Structures are given as C-alpha cells and as structure tokens.
Fold these 2 entries.
Entry 1:
Amino acid sequence: MSSTKIVLTAEVVPHVALDFMNNTHFEELDMVQSLGELITDYQQSDNATLSHALKAWYEHTQAHFSRENELMMDIHFPMYPMHSGEHARVLEEMELMVTSWNHNYDIALLSEYVFTAWPQWFEQHVNSMDMVTAQFAVMNGYEPHK
Ligand SMILES: [Fe+2]
Ligand SMILES: [Fe+2]
C-alpha cells in the first residue's frame, strides 16, 4: 500500500478559540488513535471489535457536529450552510464507510479511510471552518474557556 499514514494528535491538530470544541476534537483523536491500533494489529477475529469501535466513533462524530451546528445557529454564523453542509457530507461518507465495513470487512479500505482520508479532512476542516466559527463565537460574547 502506498498511502501515507497520517497520525494526528492533540499537539499537532490546530487549536480553535473555544475549549469545548478543542476537547471534543481531542476525544475524537483518541478514538481514532485506538481504532488505528486495532487496524495495525488486525486479525479477522477483531471484526466485531472494530465494528463496535466504528459505531462509537460515528456516534461521537454525530454529537460533535450537532453541537457545532447548534453553536452556529446560536451565534447566527453567516457561513452556517457551508459549515453544516460539510458536516452532513462527511457524516454520510462515514456512514457509508461503516456500512461497507460491516458488510465486507475490507481492512485495506478501512485503513485508507482512518489513516489518510479522514485525518486529511479533519485537519483541514478544523483549520478552516471550525477555526472561523470559534473565532466568530468569541467575538460575539462566547466564553472561550467554558
Ligand atoms: Fe469540529
Ligand atoms: Fe466543524
């Protein structure tokens, strides 16, 4: 396999102006880290464990995006359609990935998603839409450290 393995940690991922958003991002990175370890040491007997971990990751992502969508509505963020639209697109992509895993157990496909496609997207998303959203929230009176 020629794809590059991207490892994102709390130290290297961009930090935004609201702590609660950063904390959610760090939790998500921890989950992806554990998922990555399962994939690296993969054996067929791990299929059910991986399905379980993927379900938990999907649900965490769902809650993560909903909370950001709520924040954007609360502050009347002008780029709401773009940012929430991106959440919807990625959630759908993740759902397809999870469904596909549960049907085919294609470890190469899952590995490409977890180690390359998702980290690339995540870093870029946090560094752009999340960054601007948090900045806008703080400018509109949100407490950064709550
Ligand atoms: Fe986020
Ligand atoms: Fe976001």
Entry 2:
Amino acid sequence: MRILLCGNGIVSEKYLDTYRMVRENVKGYVISDDIPLPQNSENVFHISDLCKVEFDELDIANSHFETVVQILEVGIKKEKIVLCYVGLVYEYLKQYGKLDVRVRVPAVLTSMMVESGMVYGNRIGSINNTELVINEDYCRRGTLQLLAREINERGIIGDVAELGVYRGDFSQYINEAFPDRNLYLFDTFEGFWKEQEMQNVSSGFSREIDIMNSDFSDTCVSTVMKKMIHPHRVIIRKGLFPETIPDEPIGFAFVSIDCDLYQPILDGLRYFFPRLSNRGYIMLHDYNNPKFSVGVKKALSDYEEEIGERVMYVPIPDESGSIVIMK
Ligand SMILES: C[S@@+](CC[C@H](N)C(=O)[O-])C[C@H]1O[C@@H](n2cnc3c(N)ncnc32)[C@H](O)[C@@H]1O
C-alpha cells in the first residue's frame, strides 16, 4: 500500500494519530504548487506533478478545500482520493452535491440515534443508504446546539460572541444557532501575538512546541465571513483582545472562549462573565486539554479569586475538554 499524504498541520497530526494503518503506509507528501519543494527530498511532490507519481491513495488531511479542488483539477482518479477531515467532506457535498470520493473520518453512525432524534450533530449525507453523521467534535457542537436551544426557548436575552475565532469553524455554528442575535467575533485574525505566546511559555502555561506548532496565522476576516450563514449578524472586532472590546454596553447570552493563552482567557472572563445573562452560558475551551490546561485553569481560578466567589461550571467530554460556565 502506497499512501501519499496532503497536509502537515494539526489536522494531519490527529489523522495519523487515529489511523495506524495510514501511519505505517505513508510513502510521500503532497504540497501545493506555490510552496517550494524542500531540497533533497525525494518523497515530496507538487500537486501538478502527481500524475507522474505512483500511489494507491491520496489522503487529504488538511482544512483547505482549495487543495481538494486542485487535486481534482490535475485529474487524479476519484477512487484514489480520501478526504480525511470532516470540513472537507462538508464542503465537498456543498460544492458537488454528492460524495463520490472516499472518506476516512471518525463518524457516529447509529441509525437508532438518528431515528430517535438524539442526533444533534452534523448530518450531512448518506453512504450506502446509511445516514452519515459526522463527528466534527460531535460533543462540542452538540453541546452548543443544546445550549442554544435552552437559551432560545427560554428567551434568555443577550448577544453572542466568540473570543478566539481562527478560521471561524466554530463561530459559524454559533451564527447558525442564533440567527436573531448579534455575533461578536474577537480575534487578531492574524494568529497569536508573539509576546503573549512567549509569556504563556515562560510562565509554564504551555509548552513552546505546542504553541509553535500552530500559530493560527493562516486566516483572515474574509475566510471567516464566507462561512457565516447570517453574515449581517456578525460584528468583527479585529485586533488584540481586550483592546477590541466595544465601547457600547452589551449583554451576552452565549460566549465561546477559545484562545488557548492564559492572559486573553483571564481578560475574556473579566469582560464576559459580568455581562452574561442569568441562565446564559460560556463555553471555555481547553480546560482539560493537557496542552493548555495549566494556563486555562489558572485563568479561571485567578478570576474567581479576583471576584471573591466560585464560578459554576460543568466539564464536558469534547475533544479539548471544555467546560460550560453558567450563571
Ligand atoms: C484555537 S484558535 C481558535 C479556534 C476556533 N475557536 C475554532 O474552534 O475553530 C485560537 C485563536 O485565538 C486567537 N487569540 C489568542 N489570543 C488573542 C488575543 N489576545 N486577542 C485576539 N485573538 C487572540 C488567535 O489569533 C487564534 O485565532
């Protein structure tokens, strides 16, 4: 078995972690034509050279749909293409209306769950007449949907927000779940600020390698906005939080804080928690994620010390060990 892998970031790391068979059979790497080939590497190929290379399957494990389009354009047979990231599957269906390439992503596939209405995940299509429910951090997304249902059905007042947006992958679901509320999106939209990054490492809140591996700079506002289904509801606050806090008074019904680093998380709690409506929720990411939990936990406990009271929360078993804070 000769597998070529297209992707070298967190997505491919997770993919290789999950599938041992793939790990053992990767024989080469594929990169976009605009990235120079590394010197003396015989097993790295440009997309446009793929027709000259022999392989059994090409696993696309990154979050950039452009690479799928480019690979299709050079004429690679569809039966050799494997989509390894749920966002690609979702986008593929949106663009082409059917799934005629292969897919290898963790999926929840119980028809009983579907029939009983227990599924709040991303039900996107069918393969061999089996409903395919993609597990794109199913627990995180399902939790958001249920919290949104609570908030909307109970008429909890307030806008919604995400601090730490990156490419808008979670923000889009917040936007979808709250079509009638303003969605404030706080991010540099240029990745981590070097100083805060180094501060986090020197304070022992995260390891340098975990931060350096993903600096989140490959994004911009238009990438995020393209994903929003109610774009007129989105208010972009670009820059270093908390400098980007709006002047006007705002109340919040739902907030996602997902910025990895101690300082902005503490600043986020200082800003959002006092403005959170009664029976509103804050999803705080990475609380039980070993890569970041030291800083995240300290941010929450320092905040509790500042306000002189305990914050109520429930841990959830999503991929990054989020907690749901409530009032
Ligand atoms: C883990 S990513 C967010 C992922 C996103 N929530 C998702 O689920 O796809 C962390 C983001 O936090 C942002 N960030 C970290 N510190 C920040 C700060 N002080 N101000 C603004 N953005 C910040 C980074 O730019 C990065 O985009």
